[in-house]
Amino acid sequence: MDDRQCKRIGILTSGGDAPGMNGVIRAVTRTSINSGVQVMGIRRGYHGLYKGEVVELNARSVSGKLSQGGTFLNTARSEHFTTEEGLEQAAKMTKVFDLDGVVACGGDGTMKGAAALARVGVPVIFIPATIDNDVGCTDYTIGFDTALNTAIVAVDKLKDTASSHERCSVIEVMGRETGYLALHVGIATGAEIILIPEHPVDRERDVLGKILTARNRGKHHYIVIVAEGAVESSIEVANYIEDKTQIEARATVLGYLQRGGAPTYFDRYIASMMGIKAVECLISGSQNRAIVYRNGQVLDDDLFECLNMTKRIDEVDFQQAKILSI
Ligand code: F6P
Prior knowledge:
With 326 residues, the protein is of the alpha/beta class. The protein has two domains: 8-143 and 263-307, 3-Layer(aba) Sandwich (Rossmann fold), CATH 3.40.50.450; 144-260, Phosphofructokinase domain (Rossmann fold). The chain contains eleven helices and eleven strands. A hairpin with a 2-residue loop joins strand 10 and strand 11. 6-O-phosphono-beta-D-fructofuranose is lined by residues 16, 107, 130-132, 174-176, 228, 259.
């Protein structure tokens, strides 16, 4: 697709929202307008594309959005879109609105949806944005740094009261399949215990044993960070600790706090650079790409190859976290 052809593009945000998504929409909109390309905001993710919920964006539409969490285009998980009929309808809507390409911003599910659109002939660019940081083709996903810092502030506060009462505070963070948030929150807050889905939990070994060791080392309060996907219930972990050690234990589920808030500098920066890169790809005719962050650089890579890439938490980080909390 050369300059002549790319006259109008669509932008959508899909799946779990992430701080920085508004920065992506802003960068895509202003970069496009600067190149004479019209931008259509697609409301509510792929569902909005399927339903034709499209609104033209201009440079003023995105004023004041960089510092706002969430996505002003809204997001939704769409059952319709996952069917052949839904996909065909969504592809048809790109013709109805005369879109030369679609930028899709979200997590793994959004990347799969972008690939499905590409397979039916819609030029797409995927931008990774999820607080889980679990998209295999990129070192970083937009929203992770903000969620991390939100959780760290919360854990620091919980540590104050756990210290006052000489209690154990069990804190559940988001991350159903992966423990990136839990691991890095744990490292940054000096947690005694970090439970993540990547390491199946043996309560006696991984919880009780570590609490008793910490107490024998003279500790009087304890922080346990739990990824939501690592255990059935963080409340149950707190009850187990209290039953077995007589140390008062309290559970706190941070939940959706981690999904909101003003994006940090890093998320604003990466969102802006990835949005610019996405538009540059479409304008230069490079389509069906994923925008990735690798070795400190914002790059683009083949979307279909990216689909099959995986990554794991850094095991060295996980082991070293134990040393730092002795
Ligand atoms: O994918 C990001 C995420 O926040 C996960 O950490 C969490 O488990 C999930 O979304 C919650 O999804 P929903 O917003 O649909 O409840």
